[in-house]
Amino acid sequence: KNKINIIAPTNWIADCARKSILFKENYISVIPTPIDLKKWSPIDKKYAKKIVNLPLDKNIILFGAIGGINDKRKGGDLLIKTLSILKSIQLKNNLNNFEVVVFGENSSKVNMIHNIKTHFIGKLYDDVALRLYYSAADLFILPSRKDNLPGTGIESLACGTPIAAFNVGGIPDIVDHNINGILVEPFDCDQMANEIS
Question: Of 65, 92, 117, 156, which one is least surrounded by beta carbons within 10 A?
Answer without folding.
Answer: 92
